[in-house]
Specification:
Blueprint: E1 2-6, E2 12-16, E3 24-25, E4 33-35, E5 40-44, E6 47-49, E7 62-68, E8 77-80, E9 83-85, E10 87-90, E11 93-98, E12 107-117, E13 120-123, E14 127-132
Parallel strand pairs: 4-13, 6-14
Antiparallel strand pairs: 1-2, 3-9, 5-7, 7-11, 8-9, 8-12, 10-11, 12-13, 12-14
Length: about 130
């Protein structure tokens, strides 16, 4: 089921409404990931404080949005700190709800998109999401 999320930049973006915050483990060292020309051109937010939800959804969940430079397949995903998030795709935009445990500790965490095309996983550039102390 699709719903719309409101971001701090007053954008309204589509995202899959997740009844559970289950995430999928990312296969470490997967040789199927290939670097391509897939580039994250914008994303949000860039930072939050420990335990503070961002782009807060009506149910209280946090959410990321990521714009890329090319159309994505329907099964593209946002990967945050080595965890594949259940994601929703609309053309060049991918969104995902973020479980609270993923921003419960301060640090700088990698964020990128994996796009699967014809069985090959293509990885975007990596950007940083920063969690600061309260």
């Amino acid at each position: 089921m699709l719903t719309r999320i409101k971001t701090s930049r007053s954008r309204v973006l589509p995202v899959m409404f997740l009844l559970s915050m289950a995430t999928l483990p990312l296969f470490q060292g997967c040789s199927e990931h290939r670097s391509t020309n897939l580039i994250i051109s914008a994303w949000g937010p860039h930072t939050t404080q420990v335990g503070v939800a961002f782009n807060t959804q009506p149910n209280g969940d946090a959410a990321f949005w990521v714009d890329t430079n090319q159309k994505l397949s329907s099964n593209a995903t946002i990967v945050f700190n080595s965890v594949k998030l259940k994601s929703a795709v609309t053309r060049k935009l991918v969104t995902a709800l973020v479980p609270a445990d993923l921003y419960a500790k301060k640090g700088t965490y990698p964020l990128y998109v994996v796009n699967t095309v014809k069985g090959n996983q293509e990885k975007s550039n990596t950007v940083d999401f920063i969690v600061t102390p309260k």
